[in-house]
Amino acid sequence: MRAQNILSRSRYSAAKRCRRWGTAAVEMAFIVPILGLIVMGMFELSRGVMVKQILTGAARKGCRTGIIHQYGNSDIINDATNVMRDNSFDSTLFNPPTVGSITITVTDPNGNTLSDALDAAPGSKVTVQVAIPVTSFKWVSMYFLTGTMFESDSVVMMKQ
Hints:
Layout: H1 2-66, H2 73-86, E1 101-107, E2 113-114, E3 125-133, E4 149-151, E5 155-158
Antiparallel strand pairs: 1-2, 1-3, 3-4, 3-5
């Protein structure tokens, strides 16, 4: 009788284990798409943060160039573009194929806006902002990073 009891228990536990495999497969089928979305979102958002830092670095380099007395807007654009190219953002990767936009604002000490940083008097403020199309750096989809342009912070420095 005892041997029969042990035999029926082992059959019961084997049957129970087989049913658990099916349950685990169903649970996995529900969880994998959710985890996949979370991982894709993490990749896309971390790429966005990295690109934002690159854009801010390009704006900062352009602004540093702009506050030096002998450099003008063309030098600011060249330096910001070079920083973008050094970080693999070439105009061939952009969609549409432009380097994005580099906005330069020069304000003299009296509050007047000037056309070029080269003509600015000491004490003028130079502001640079760099933007690129979002489509030029997205990896995964349009769900995580929306909008048309990705912009740097505006970097403001005082002309020497």
